[in-house]
Amino acid sequence: MSFDSILLTIFQRLHGERSAQGVYHILRGKRSGQTLQDVEYYQVKSYYALLPQLTAGEFQQALERMQADGLIYINELVYVTAKGQMATGSEMWRFNGWNYRGREREFARRLALLVQTLSNLRSSETTFMPIQKELPTQQFVKGFLRNQSSSMISLSTSLRKELEHVLTNSSLTDLQRMIVSSRLTGYRLTASTWEQMTDRVNLPVKTLQLYYIEALHIMLDFIQQRPNLPLLTELAAGCKVDTYLTQSAERTRKLFERGYSVEQIASLRNLKLSTIEDHFIEMASNMDGFPYKDFITEEQIDVVWRHVEQLQTKRLRLLKQQCPELSYFQLRLIIMIGRSES
Amino acid sequence: MELQDVLRQKFGYESFRPGQQEVITELLAGRDTVAIFPTGTGKSLCYQLPAYMVDGAVIIISPLVALMEDQVANLRKHKEKRVVAINSFLSRQEKELALSTLAHYKFIFLSPEMVMQQHVRQLVQQLPIAFFVVDEAHCISEWGFDFRPDYLRLKELFSVLERAPVLALTATANEKVVEDITTYLHMRKPHIERQSIDRPNISYRVMHMDNEWVKTEWIIQRLATTIGPGVIYVASRKRADELAAMIRETGIPTASYHGGKEQDERSIIQQQFVQGELEWICATNAFGMGIHKDDIRQVIHEHLPATPSAYIQEVGRAGRDGEKAAATLLYSKRDIQKVKFIVYEDLPDEQQTLYYHSLLQSETKSQLAAEQAGLSEVASRLLDYYLEQSDVENVIRQIHQIYQVKEKQIAEMECYVKSDSCLREKLVQFFGENTSPAEADCCSNCQNLDDDWLIKSETSTEQVVEALQWRERLHQLLG
Ligand SMILES: Nc1ncnc2c1ncn2[C@@H]1O[C@H](COP(=O)(O)OP(=O)(O)OP(=O)(O)O)[C@@H](O)[C@H]1O
Ligand SMILES: [Mg+2]
Ligand SMILES: [Zn+2]
């Protein structure tokens, strides 16, 4: 529905255990141990890096507005009021921020430029002002076209068929279909600005933009699962994150694979122990089959999770009071891994 | 090949416009050249064409990213692939990529900041260069919102003994500015080619109004009864958005355009305007250079531009096709105060200068010092440049001079709006030219305007284009 409802959803999931700053980092997609851990803990991965361009000012404004409206209450940490809970709405967002992290916009730019190019070429118009100015996008589309063997006209039709297929079958709403197609420019047909769409459907710009991002995520997910969309698949190349680890965590992972312990890695890499522990948390949240049993036992997992249930919190300080024998690192790991299967 | 043949084959034009051939011939003879042609009369061709007649790269120094992009797109339109633009908007990787392949390009566009970076400059100087071009060269002697110290630093690039010739292009330069250009660019016995700044097909109007509200009323009324396409220049981004929304309410397709909009949006708006899907644009001074639309019929100023040269540039967007166009400046009493405020805000006064200097002396970081001295970003950039060149007393003197120049320019604008003699004559006089009033359609003071051609015909009422359904739209785009 709106930017506010996204914020409310995230604040609710974090139920008063994180500051507003933490949410800002989630939306911007900060790659720090803390943020990565937060998105996992509180199950807000789908909102991760949703708005990489969000400015501190915009975020602050939204907070102030929501406070003034009595939707949230801030006392270092952020709490959602009863009124806020009602206002969150029941709409389910279908973002996949974790997988795309802002790269969906690059997909949109490539698509826009490719459509414009093919649309003009099939109408025998070879000179037009490219609607996308970014050099990497232009180079990508150039390379893309160079690799095609079919004629521009048949390429154009194939692309239209693929797009039509995706828009029809990928569970977008009608509004989203309208938005996606309206952002495309071609021969004698220019895209609509956000303002123009706002006038047409009577929704705020920010809301339309969020629907658009969601639509791109849905389309990209869909394209990835279908083998019969060669053009769009190529166009989506590199938009999905392939390595989820930060470079530094990746280096730690390699050393760990070669049999070094946490302490050894810290001294080898000349980094603080806590930094290396952050890397392990990052690995635990991103890798299937992370060997967590090297650090904790099944019993410990059970005990901690029973406390989580009882206290209705995942705050480490409180859990540590209950299980003083466990280190903070172990506690974080346990929360990260989740309840054991048994 | 003869010049004429290249003109026809490469560019598809039948003949040169006045002055073009002279400039090209001088440049090809290896002479430094200054070309002063009115807006929209084909200055770009003066470097595009000779580029094909000599070996080596053409280095074009251009002040605005939008302008660069436009020139690049324009060259590509003429089937030229060896074009690149390097400016601060490129990411590091993009920039590295472009720089590492510099030798492949025939046309290299650079911002002054970029070309003055040590390693960029070295790379450029290693290239075989046909000639240099400094576009919008009046920026060298203009201070203000877009004060660009690096334009002044360009002299380091050109003071070397052996170098390729330099071509300076501008639409607005009086004797003083031409002198600045030739000295700062170290030009040697330059050839100066000047075409009259007057654009006979543009008629001028100044309208006195009581207040902002009356201006708005007038604009709404005017747009309801007269034709576009047109541009309305306003003082701020906020005002651009606000006015555009009001006009849209009346059913006229209008958008705002300013630096605060995302690149994607700006591209779309520009495209819609060029294609005729939008009739009016409400813009800040970010709109202008680099927008190619030949049939703009009206330019309206809701605020007072700070300099005659800015006014000439903005009005110059109109009537590039040679057909009639109308320029209107709406003036109310407080406008002088307003423009002064905006201009002086960016100029440090004596106390600020001294304080800033003393802070820097005591090793305060320049950003923090600027904040403490209450300097705008432009103001501190300006001081940084001058303090690097000379001592603080001298700097104060120089700033004072700038202040006087600014004051004079605003006074000229004041004189323009308050004049009761021919506006055309007034305007060109600021650039050291003389002209006589046009026989017909001259200006509101000559009282020979015949605005029949401006009146909207009944049939041209806006047709609301139904938004296409998404499927139809895809078919229409891609077949
Ligand atoms: N010899 C010619 N014959 C016909 N058209 C020409 C000729 N030379 C240039 N033009 C056209 O005139 C238009 C304006 O040219 P250009 O952009 O070079 O103007 P300019 O003088 O640089 O203006 P500005 O001061 O606004 O930058 C272009 O569309 C260009 O193609
Ligand atoms: Mg030009
Ligand atoms: Zn006159």
TrEMBL record, chain A:
Name of the protein in question: Helicase Helix-turn-helix domain-containing protein
Superkingdom of this protein's organism: Bacteria
Domain Helicase Helix-turn-helix: 248-335
UniProt cross-references to InterPro entries, sorted A to Z: Helicase_HTH (IPR029491), YpbB-like (IPR008308)
Taxonomic lineage of the native organism: Bacteria, Bacillati, Bacillota, Bacilli, Bacillales
Automatic annotation (TrEMBL), chain B:
Top-rank lineage group of the source organism: Bacteria
Family annotation (PROSITE patterns): DEAH_ATP_HELICASE, HELICASE_ATP_BIND_1, HELICASE_CTER
Keywords recorded for this protein, A-Z: ATP-binding, DNA-binding, Helicase, Hydrolase, Nucleotide-binding
Annotated ranges, domain Helicase C-terminal: 219-362
Residue ranges crossing the lipid bilayer per the database entry: none
Record-annotated Helicase ATP-binding domain positions: 24-191
Protein name according to UniProt: ATP-dependent DNA helicase RecQ
Lineage of origin: Bacteria, Bacillati, Bacillota, Bacilli, Bacillales
